[in-house]
Design a protein that fits this description.
The protein has 9 helices and 10 strands. It is of the alpha/beta class.
Protein backbone atom coordinates (compact mmCIF):
# COMPACT_ATOMS: atom_id res chain seq x y z
CA UNK A 1 0.00 0.00 0.00
CA UNK A 2 1.26 3.48 -0.94
CA UNK A 3 0.36 6.59 1.03
CA UNK A 4 -1.46 9.40 -0.80
CA UNK A 5 1.37 11.81 0.03
CA UNK A 6 4.09 9.28 -0.72
CA UNK A 7 5.83 6.38 0.95
CA UNK A 8 5.15 2.70 1.47
CA UNK A 9 3.09 1.44 4.39
CA UNK A 10 3.47 -2.32 3.76
CA UNK A 11 6.38 -4.23 2.25
CA UNK A 12 4.33 -7.30 1.35
CA UNK A 13 4.95 -8.07 -2.31
CA UNK A 14 7.08 -4.94 -2.76
CA UNK A 15 10.34 -5.05 -4.70
CA UNK A 16 13.05 -3.73 -2.36
CA UNK A 17 16.50 -2.83 -3.69
CA UNK A 18 19.10 -2.65 -0.92
CA UNK A 19 22.83 -1.85 -0.97
CA UNK A 20 25.27 -3.00 1.71
CA UNK A 21 23.25 -6.20 2.18
CA UNK A 22 26.19 -8.42 3.17
CA UNK A 23 26.22 -7.39 6.83
CA UNK A 24 25.31 -4.95 9.56
CA UNK A 25 22.29 -2.70 9.05
CA UNK A 26 21.91 -3.83 5.42
CA UNK A 27 21.65 -7.50 6.26
CA UNK A 28 19.33 -6.84 9.20
CA UNK A 29 17.08 -4.73 6.95
CA UNK A 30 17.06 -7.47 4.30
CA UNK A 31 16.06 -10.14 6.81
CA UNK A 32 13.32 -8.03 8.38
CA UNK A 33 11.96 -6.80 5.05
CA UNK A 34 11.83 -10.38 3.78
CA UNK A 35 9.97 -11.45 6.93
CA UNK A 36 7.35 -8.82 6.06
CA UNK A 37 6.91 -10.28 2.58
CA UNK A 38 9.23 -8.07 0.53
CA UNK A 39 10.82 -9.32 -2.69
CA UNK A 40 14.50 -8.55 -2.24
CA UNK A 41 16.97 -7.18 -4.78
CA UNK A 42 20.36 -7.15 -3.07
CA UNK A 43 23.89 -5.95 -3.68
CA UNK A 44 27.16 -5.54 -1.80
CA UNK A 45 30.76 -5.59 -2.93
CA UNK A 46 31.53 -8.53 -0.58
CA UNK A 47 30.31 -11.42 -2.74
CA UNK A 48 30.81 -14.23 -0.19
CA UNK A 49 29.00 -12.44 2.61
CA UNK A 50 26.25 -11.39 0.21
CA UNK A 51 25.67 -15.08 -0.54
CA UNK A 52 25.40 -15.70 3.21
CA UNK A 53 22.65 -13.08 3.45
CA UNK A 54 20.77 -14.64 0.52
CA UNK A 55 21.05 -18.08 2.11
CA UNK A 56 19.84 -16.78 5.48
CA UNK A 57 16.82 -15.04 3.95
CA UNK A 58 15.80 -18.02 1.87
CA UNK A 59 16.22 -20.49 4.71
CA UNK A 60 13.83 -18.33 6.75
CA UNK A 61 11.27 -18.48 3.94
CA UNK A 62 11.98 -15.08 2.40
CA UNK A 63 12.25 -14.19 -1.28
CA UNK A 64 15.42 -12.97 -2.97
CA UNK A 65 14.68 -12.27 -6.62
CA UNK A 66 18.11 -10.83 -7.42
CA UNK A 67 21.52 -10.66 -5.78
CA UNK A 68 24.79 -9.59 -7.34
CA UNK A 69 28.06 -8.18 -6.05
CA UNK A 70 28.87 -4.63 -7.14
CA UNK A 71 30.71 -1.52 -5.96
CA UNK A 72 28.28 1.39 -5.57
CA UNK A 73 31.11 3.87 -6.13
CA UNK A 74 31.37 2.58 -9.72
CA UNK A 75 28.55 4.19 -11.72
CA UNK A 76 28.75 1.65 -14.58
CA UNK A 77 28.31 -1.24 -12.16
CA UNK A 78 25.26 0.34 -10.53
CA UNK A 79 23.79 1.17 -13.92
CA UNK A 80 24.23 -2.44 -15.02
CA UNK A 81 22.47 -3.67 -11.87
CA UNK A 82 19.52 -1.40 -12.56
CA UNK A 83 19.22 -2.50 -16.17
CA UNK A 84 19.24 -6.18 -15.21
CA UNK A 85 16.74 -5.71 -12.39
CA UNK A 86 14.36 -3.63 -14.51
CA UNK A 87 14.58 -6.08 -17.40
CA UNK A 88 13.88 -9.10 -15.19
CA UNK A 89 11.03 -7.78 -13.04
CA UNK A 90 10.43 -4.07 -13.45
CA UNK A 91 11.22 -1.10 -11.19
CA UNK A 92 11.88 -1.30 -7.48
CA UNK A 93 9.19 -0.06 -5.11
CA UNK A 94 11.62 0.72 -2.29
CA UNK A 95 15.28 1.74 -2.64
CA UNK A 96 17.56 1.61 0.41
CA UNK A 97 21.04 3.15 0.33
CA UNK A 98 22.90 1.50 3.19
CA UNK A 99 26.44 0.71 1.98
CA UNK A 100 29.19 2.85 3.47
CA UNK A 101 32.79 3.19 4.67
CA UNK A 102 34.43 5.57 7.12
CA UNK A 103 37.77 7.20 7.89
CA UNK A 104 38.73 9.24 10.95
CA UNK A 105 41.61 11.67 11.18
CA UNK A 106 42.75 15.24 11.63
CA UNK A 107 43.29 17.54 8.67
CA UNK A 108 47.07 17.44 9.00
CA UNK A 109 47.14 13.62 8.90
CA UNK A 110 44.51 12.80 6.29
CA UNK A 111 45.63 12.12 2.74
CA UNK A 112 43.67 13.08 -0.35
CA UNK A 113 42.71 9.45 -0.94
CA UNK A 114 40.95 9.29 2.43
CA UNK A 115 38.64 12.15 1.48
CA UNK A 116 38.01 10.86 -2.02
CA UNK A 117 37.37 7.22 -1.05
CA UNK A 118 34.74 8.13 1.55
CA UNK A 119 32.98 10.63 -0.71
CA UNK A 120 32.98 8.18 -3.64
CA UNK A 121 31.30 5.42 -1.62
CA UNK A 122 29.14 7.31 0.89
CA UNK A 123 27.89 10.16 -1.31
CA UNK A 124 28.45 9.27 -4.96
CA UNK A 125 27.35 5.68 -4.29
CA UNK A 126 23.83 6.70 -3.22
CA UNK A 127 23.72 9.26 -6.04
CA UNK A 128 24.55 6.49 -8.54
CA UNK A 129 21.70 4.41 -7.12
CA UNK A 130 19.27 7.34 -7.21
CA UNK A 131 20.23 8.13 -10.82
CA UNK A 132 19.81 4.51 -11.87
CA UNK A 133 16.67 3.44 -9.98
CA UNK A 134 14.45 6.45 -9.24
CA UNK A 135 13.52 7.47 -12.83
CA UNK A 136 12.04 3.99 -13.45
CA UNK A 137 10.19 4.18 -10.13
CA UNK A 138 8.74 7.56 -11.15
CA UNK A 139 7.75 6.28 -14.60
CA UNK A 140 5.91 3.32 -13.05
CA UNK A 141 3.52 5.77 -11.32
CA UNK A 142 2.83 3.54 -8.37
CA UNK A 143 4.67 5.52 -5.71
CA UNK A 144 7.40 4.07 -3.53
CA UNK A 145 10.02 4.97 -0.95
CA UNK A 146 13.67 6.01 -0.83
CA UNK A 147 15.69 5.33 2.33
CA UNK A 148 19.10 6.99 2.66
CA UNK A 149 21.27 5.95 5.59
CA UNK A 150 23.35 8.96 6.58
CA UNK A 151 24.87 9.21 10.06
CA UNK A 152 25.05 11.21 13.24
CA UNK A 153 28.06 12.67 11.42
CA UNK A 154 25.57 14.05 8.90
CA UNK A 155 23.89 16.08 11.63
CA UNK A 156 26.54 17.27 14.07
CA UNK A 157 30.26 18.06 14.11
CA UNK A 158 31.76 14.84 15.44
CA UNK A 159 35.51 15.05 16.19
CA UNK A 160 37.91 13.69 13.56
CA UNK A 161 35.02 12.88 11.17
CA UNK A 162 35.58 15.51 8.45
CA UNK A 163 35.73 13.16 5.41
CA UNK A 164 32.79 11.09 6.67
CA UNK A 165 30.80 14.22 7.44
CA UNK A 166 31.57 15.62 3.98
CA UNK A 167 29.77 12.63 2.47
CA UNK A 168 27.01 12.22 5.05
CA UNK A 169 26.07 15.90 5.17
CA UNK A 170 25.97 15.74 1.37
CA UNK A 171 23.59 12.77 1.46
CA UNK A 172 21.47 14.64 3.96
CA UNK A 173 21.27 17.57 1.53
CA UNK A 174 20.26 15.31 -1.35
CA UNK A 175 17.56 13.75 0.84
CA UNK A 176 16.26 17.14 1.98
CA UNK A 177 15.65 18.18 -1.64
CA UNK A 178 14.20 14.86 -2.77
CA UNK A 179 11.69 14.69 0.10
CA UNK A 180 9.90 17.56 -1.63
CA UNK A 181 10.78 16.86 -5.29
CA UNK A 182 9.51 13.28 -5.11
CA UNK A 183 6.32 13.94 -3.18
CA UNK A 184 4.34 14.68 -6.34
CA UNK A 185 5.23 11.18 -7.53
CA UNK A 186 4.00 9.69 -4.23
CA UNK A 187 7.55 8.59 -3.37
CA UNK A 188 8.44 9.06 0.27
CA UNK A 189 11.95 9.82 1.51
CA UNK A 190 13.45 8.73 4.82
CA UNK A 191 16.82 9.97 6.10
CA UNK A 192 18.37 7.73 8.76
CA UNK A 193 21.04 9.20 11.04
CA UNK A 194 22.28 6.41 13.33
CA UNK A 195 24.63 6.86 16.22
CA UNK A 196 26.98 4.02 17.18
CA UNK A 197 25.97 0.68 15.66
CA UNK A 198 27.80 -2.64 16.08
CA UNK A 199 28.22 -3.39 12.36
CA UNK A 200 31.12 -4.59 10.17
CA UNK A 201 31.87 -0.88 9.69
CA UNK A 202 33.15 -1.02 13.26
CA UNK A 203 35.95 -3.28 11.99
CA UNK A 204 36.84 -1.25 8.90
CA UNK A 205 36.89 2.36 10.08
CA UNK A 206 40.33 3.88 9.61
CA UNK A 207 41.86 6.14 12.25
CA UNK A 208 44.82 7.50 10.39
CA UNK A 209 48.11 7.02 12.19
CA UNK A 210 46.94 4.55 14.85
CA UNK A 211 48.35 1.04 15.09
CA UNK A 212 45.38 -1.33 14.88
CA UNK A 213 47.01 -3.77 17.30
CA UNK A 214 47.78 -1.26 20.02
CA UNK A 215 46.10 -1.50 23.45
CA UNK A 216 44.69 1.99 22.89
CA UNK A 217 43.00 0.86 19.67
CA UNK A 218 41.50 -2.18 21.37
CA UNK A 219 40.18 0.00 24.19
CA UNK A 220 38.62 2.42 21.71
CA UNK A 221 36.82 -0.38 19.92
CA UNK A 222 35.60 -1.92 23.19
CA UNK A 223 34.30 1.48 24.35
CA UNK A 224 32.48 1.94 21.07
CA UNK A 225 30.86 -1.50 21.11
CA UNK A 226 29.70 -1.03 24.69
CA UNK A 227 27.56 1.93 23.58
CA UNK A 228 26.52 0.62 20.17
CA UNK A 229 23.03 -0.46 19.18
CA UNK A 230 22.59 -3.77 17.36
CA UNK A 231 21.90 -3.78 13.60
CA UNK A 232 18.62 -5.56 14.30
CA UNK A 233 17.45 -2.78 16.63
CA UNK A 234 18.36 -0.15 14.06
CA UNK A 235 16.66 -2.05 11.22
CA UNK A 236 13.45 -2.31 13.22
CA UNK A 237 13.54 1.43 13.95
CA UNK A 238 14.09 2.22 10.26
CA UNK A 239 11.23 0.06 9.00
CA UNK A 240 8.85 1.34 11.69
CA UNK A 241 9.72 4.92 10.81
CA UNK A 242 9.36 4.31 7.09
CA UNK A 243 5.89 2.79 7.55
CA UNK A 244 4.85 5.85 9.57
CA UNK A 245 6.08 8.18 6.84
CA UNK A 246 8.83 9.74 8.97
CA UNK A 247 11.50 11.74 7.19
CA UNK A 248 14.26 11.93 9.84
CA UNK A 249 15.05 8.88 11.95
CA UNK A 250 17.46 8.91 14.91
CA UNK A 251 18.60 5.63 16.46
CA UNK A 252 20.54 7.11 19.40
CA UNK A 253 19.01 9.17 22.21
CA UNK A 254 22.31 10.99 22.81
CA UNK A 255 22.58 12.07 19.17
CA UNK A 256 18.91 13.06 19.18
CA UNK A 257 19.56 15.33 22.17
CA UNK A 258 22.65 16.90 20.58
CA UNK A 259 20.78 17.54 17.35
CA UNK A 260 17.96 19.15 19.32
CA UNK A 261 20.48 21.38 21.10
CA UNK A 262 22.00 22.33 17.75
CA UNK A 263 18.58 23.43 16.48
CA UNK A 264 17.04 24.91 19.63
CA UNK A 265 19.96 26.02 21.81
CA UNK A 266 23.05 26.62 19.65
CA UNK A 267 25.25 27.95 22.49
CA UNK A 268 24.71 24.75 24.51
CA UNK A 269 25.46 22.66 21.43
CA UNK A 270 28.73 24.53 20.92
CA UNK A 271 29.76 23.94 24.53
CA UNK A 272 28.89 20.23 24.30
CA UNK A 273 30.79 19.70 21.04
CA UNK A 274 33.85 21.61 22.28
CA UNK A 275 33.93 19.34 25.32
CA UNK A 276 33.53 16.23 23.15
CA UNK A 277 36.31 17.45 20.86
CA UNK A 278 38.67 17.92 23.81
CA UNK A 279 37.98 14.37 25.00
CA UNK A 280 38.47 12.95 21.50
CA UNK A 281 41.72 14.85 21.04
CA UNK A 282 43.02 13.56 24.36
CA UNK A 283 42.08 9.93 23.70
CA UNK A 284 42.69 9.67 19.95
CA UNK A 285 45.67 12.01 19.98
CA UNK A 286 47.30 9.90 22.68
CA UNK A 287 46.69 6.76 20.61
CA UNK A 288 48.37 8.38 17.59
CA UNK A 289 51.31 9.47 19.74
CA UNK A 290 51.76 5.98 21.17
CA UNK A 291 51.62 4.48 17.69
CA UNK A 292 54.31 6.91 16.61
CA UNK A 293 56.53 5.89 19.52
CA UNK A 294 56.00 2.22 18.68
CA UNK A 295 57.28 2.74 15.11
CA UNK A 296 60.14 5.10 15.98
CA UNK A 297 63.56 3.86 15.07
CA UNK A 298 65.88 3.35 12.10
CA UNK A 299 63.97 3.63 8.87
CA UNK A 300 60.71 4.78 10.44
CA UNK A 301 59.07 8.20 10.41
CA UNK A 302 61.53 9.82 8.02
CA UNK A 303 62.66 9.68 4.45
CA UNK A 304 60.55 9.01 1.35
CA UNK A 305 56.95 8.16 2.09
CA UNK A 306 56.90 9.60 5.58
CA UNK A 307 54.56 12.34 6.69
CA UNK A 308 50.85 12.67 7.44
CA UNK A 309 48.91 9.52 6.70
CA UNK A 310 51.99 7.31 6.17
CA UNK A 311 53.74 5.09 8.66
CA UNK A 312 51.61 2.87 10.95
CA UNK A 313 48.61 1.19 9.45
CA UNK A 314 45.25 2.66 10.24
CA UNK A 315 43.38 0.87 12.97
CA UNK A 316 40.10 -0.90 12.41
CA UNK A 317 37.81 0.34 15.16
CA UNK A 318 34.27 1.54 15.49
CA UNK A 319 32.95 4.74 13.98
CA UNK A 320 29.56 6.38 14.20
CA UNK A 321 27.40 4.97 11.42
Amino acid sequence: MTRRGGGVRSLAGRRVFLTGAAGGIGRALAERAAAEGAVLLLTDRAADRLEDTVRSVREAGGTVAYAKAADVSAYDEVRALAEEIHAEGGPADVVMNVAGISTWGTVEMLEHRHWRDVVEVDLMGPIHVIESFLPAMIAARRGGHLVNVSSAAGLIGLPWHAPYSAAKFGLRGVSEVLRFDLRRHRIGVTLVCPGAVATPLADTVEIVGVDRDSPAARRLRARFLKRAASPEEVATTILDGMRRGRYLIHTSRAIHVLHALQCLAPPLYVLAMRAWNRVAQRVLGAAVARSGEKTTGPGSGSGPGSGPGSGPAAVRVGGVR
